[in-house]
Amino acid sequence: MATTVSPVSETCLTAKRAARALARADTAVKDAALEAIATALGVRLGEILAANERDLELAHEAGIGAALLDRLRLDELRVAGIALAVRQIAALADPVGEVIDGHRLPNGLDIRKVRVPLGVVAVVYEARPNVTIDAAALCLKSGNAIVLRGSSTAMHSNAALAQIAAEAAVGAGLPEGCVSLVAGGGREELAELATQQGVVDLIIPRGGESLKEALQAVATVPVIYAASGNCHVYVDGSADLDSAEAIVLNAKTQRPGVCNAAETLLVHERIAGELLPRVLRSLADAGVLVRGDERTLAIAAELGASAQGSIARIEPVDEEDWGREYLAPIIAIGVVDSVEQAIEHVGRYGSGHSEAIVTRDTAAARAFQLGVDAACVYVNASTRFTDGGEFGMGAEIGNSTQKLHARGPIGLRELCTFKYLIEGDGHVRA
Amino acid sequence: MATTVSPVSETCLTAKRAARALARADTAVKDAALEAIATALGVRLGEILAANERDLELAHEAGIGAALLDRLRLDELRVAGIALAVRQIAALADPVGEVIDGHRLPNGLDIRKVRVPLGVVAVVYEARPNVTIDAAALCLKSGNAIVLRGSSTAMHSNAALAQIAAEAAVGAGLPEGCVSLVAGGGREELAELATQQGVVDLIIPRGGESLKEALQAVATVPVIYAASGNCHVYVDGSADLDSAEAIVLNAKTQRPGVCNAAETLLVHERIAGELLPRVLRSLADAGVLVRGDERTLAIAAELGASAQGSIARIEPVDEEDWGREYLAPIIAIGVVDSVEQAIEHVGRYGSGHSEAIVTRDTAAARAFQLGVDAACVYVNASTRFTDGGEFGMGAEIGNSTQKLHARGPIGLRELCTFKYLIEGDGHVRA
Question: What DSSP line would sit under A273-297, residue for residue?
Answer without folding.
Answer: HHHHHHHHHHHHHTT-EEEE-HHHH
